[in-house]
# Entry
Amino acid sequence: MPATPPASPGPGAHADLEALARRGRLLVLESTNAAGAGHVGGPLSAMDLLVALYLRVMRIRPDQPDWPDRDRFVLSKGHSAIGLYTAMALAGYLPVDELRTFDQAGSRLQGHPDMTRLPGLDASTGSLGQGISVGVGMALGARLRGLDFHTWVLLGDGEMQEGQVWESVAVAAKYGLGNLTMIVDRNGMQQYGWPLRPGETHRGDRRDPFGDVAARAALEAFGWRVLEIDGHDFGQIIDACEAARAAAGGGAPTAILASTVKGRGFSFTQGASAWHARAATADEVAAARAELGEAAQ
Amino acid sequence: MSAPQRDVWADTLVELGASNPDLLVLDADLATSTKAEKFARAFPDRFLEMGIAEQGMVGTAVGLASLGFVPWLSSFTVFFTHRAVDQVRMSVAQTRANVKIGAAYSGLQLGFSGKTHLDVQDLAIMRAMPDMTVLAPADAAECAAIVRWATATPGPVYLRLGREAGPDVFGADYVFEPGRVVRLRDGADVLLVSTGQQTARTLAAAGLLAARGVDAGVVHLPSVKPLDTAALAEATAAVPLVVATEEHSVLGGLGGLVAEVVTSHEPRWVARIGIEDTWGESAPNAWLLERHGLTPERVAERVLQELARR
# Structure
């Protein structure tokens, strides 16, 4: 039920971003294959969101990562690190070849984002629920300093189970942080979770943070502005982000609930909970290349 | 008697806030207890109430610090070192964020709060954290000096603050240096090593020991981390027995630190006086200090016992 965002310009309007996201998804598989470790499902579900943010939405200077007026970005779901590094590489923060060092000894690309190692990271994350609080501090600090940058925080929907998220949801509304936007990668799956229905053996698959709590209603009750979008539609992603930025002075923080598919992009990863945390094999990388065909070249 | 450290902390922040517009205080709804309310009254725009939500408060401080603010946090020590310890670990220490933790209500003297609020493991937990500076002032003068130093020095700081007033140890001209081993009294028979408000009681114990013919030295470690370990080893080298005494568990705190440092250099007897492996309880402060052997009289008795055993 996408509601608020204006109509999208239609298919093909963002062909450049779509091509970058396809390339990014393949890079995720290649990087986890090179590392022999990593998470795949979450980075693939978030790839379109990350590409839209880094290549279109955010006001950033990849060649000047400490630019004081830059938009801030926090990957609160830090285990999608390889997805973030890939988007940053596509944006020019680091060489694309460096992605192959992911998770290796001495790499700037740690298993979870480490801001002390990689310029351009605004926060270190990994233990879930903490990034949103750091984002609240950035948005509050911007308000106190009179700076007009926007702070974007990407969370997982499973991450919404962390109590700290709701501490910060409450404080962000209390301080009227319209300059803060939380984007929820709502892929509806988590590592183990609950059976979807009583008696079902398949687990880890749900739509809302607690299986039966409506995220939109909960966030609205806390005073947030909520937009629901298709997290794989670049038109909707960009429109929602622009609407969020335009409302920065309005006093309510914005939550963009982006419906996504975990493992999006390849027939064998899509919707498969086994890909939450595992590396791609060489055969799987080859299969992914074949699926992308010309588009990935 | 010296002013309570919680008041000294708040008064010093008010003093610093007048000339430092980046100084903020974030509170998790304990401002009347921690005395952060003094800062709130002086600088209402730079006092940020975070509600009863310590984990979120710690993370928010990290975001504010990234913009050049110097956030001091107001809550009880137990809520930093136990409830929000993961936030302190990952968001603050691992990023070396310029966040200052004002850990009020430390140690045993909590005025009837009981074991839920007594935190006698904080030094053990915080000193095991890389990139964290862990400080425990003896009195008001040292507390004020530390607040000034910590506010001016980039990086994470954990400051252990007592609730109750205690005897003065230092003069108003005291200068704090991180890592310094502060020699308070020389003695050839035994060296007493202390930190925080236990130091005044340790000095008194040394006086009692002198009356019993025992020449006890005293050193004070306001900086549990970092520490000039060479200076501590040197201070302990000339005595046959080293006794660590602290208003903290005997597991992993000052006693652990002293044992690690001293025995890394040469074999030496180290005794540890503190709260044995047990929880606290509700009781008058004086009763708790007596119960856990931390009064000057009990420390002196224990030192005599330890000397007799060797």
Observations:
- The CA atoms of residues 64 and 294 of chain B lie 40 Å apart.
